[in-house]
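User: Continuing from earlier, I have the next pair ready.

Assistant: Great, send them over.

User: Here they are, in order.

Assistant: Folding the first of the pair now:
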Amino acid sequence: QMQLVESGGGLVQAGGSLRLSCVASGRTFSNYAMGWFRQAPGQEREFAAALSWNSQTTDYSDSVKGRFTISRDNSRNTVFLQMNSLKPEDTAVYYCAAKFLHIRTTAESYPYWGQGTQVTVSS
């Protein structure tokens, strides 16, 4: 099992920035691709960003591309999501997820999930 714990969410004004963190334990972090997903009230969970085990491959949804950056620090077993130029439509619970080696953009591909952290962007 892998345990994932997110932090860094909060309330921010439109145009502002937040950095989410997700600390992993229980597995060899450097073997796992990491993803960030988000879920707004009444909507399905959607893909936001992903990073491969070796940081050589990234993918972003069109809605966050150019504004969000995913990165990882394997020495700290941590993945980050830097979110800039936030918009009210970015308001959601953000979830960290892990799967072995290679990235995918579908939630069903990730066996390990954190509990989520709330991000609220006011207009």
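And the other member of the pair:
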Amino acid sequence: QVQLVESGGGTVQAGDSLRLSCAASEYIFSMYTMGWFRQAPGKGRELVTAITSSGGATYYADSVKGRFTISRDNTNSTVYLQMNNLKPEDTAAYYCAGRRGNIFTSPARYDTWGQGTQVTVSS
């Protein structure tokens, strides 16, 4: 099974940028649709963005459209989340997750998860 390791989180100020990375352990990463979820304290885990295995299709939650960009490098088995113009409401633990097949918004449809990385945005 593919193992995922996130990195790149941290504490920033509103308006700053961060780039998260998620490195996969296996070459079959290239067959996986990959998503970035986030979970704030006391809230459910929500899909922020996702990208299909080929990179041909993406999904963005309305709250991050125009600010976040997902990309992937199948050669290096890594998916990225570029986050610009960060807001305090973006504060959460961010998780990358993978599944074979199409993009789904429900976390229950993803069977491979990273350990998460914290993003904190101060006002």
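Worth noting for the second one:
The mean pLDDT is 96. The radius of gyration is 13 Å.
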